[in-house]
Amino acid sequence: MAKNNNNNNDKMSREERGRMGGEATSRNHDKDFYQEIGQKGGEATSENHDKDFYQEIGQKGGEATAENHDSEFYQEIGQKGGEATAENHDKDFYQEIGRKGGEATSENHDRDFYEEIGRKGGNSND
């Protein structure tokens, strides 16, 4: 490790100073500290950015994830998510989200839509 005196050849790089500072911080703080600063950072970010910002970073994150994972990955996380949701929620939860989904669908679709899906459902039994 380089010493930090006034000789340019012995100064620490910014990267090394950052690494050492991060290591010192992690030794001196616990999980609650990181949760608190994460909460504050999230609140500050939400005050400074709009919906478009979050859509853009979500899109980029989704694309990066899709480039690095296959369908098996998505099946696995979907199954884990479904199991976790089932463990944490009861019948009333599922009735409520079903009701909300039905309302949202009815606001976005007309009678022709329902006739079409009804026909498709009826034909699937053949």
UniProtKB/TrEMBL annotation:
Pfam families: KGG (PF10685)
Domain of life: Bacteria
Basic and acidic residues compositional bias, start-end: 11-34, 86-119
InterPro entries with a match to the protein in the record: Stress-induced_KGG_rpt (IPR019626), Stress/Virulence-Domain (IPR052590)
Region (Disordered): 1-51, 78-126
PANTHER family given in the database record: CONIDIATION-SPECIFIC PROTEIN 10 (EUROFUNG) (PTHR36569:SF5), PTHR36569
Protein name: General stress protein
Organism: Cytobacillus firmus
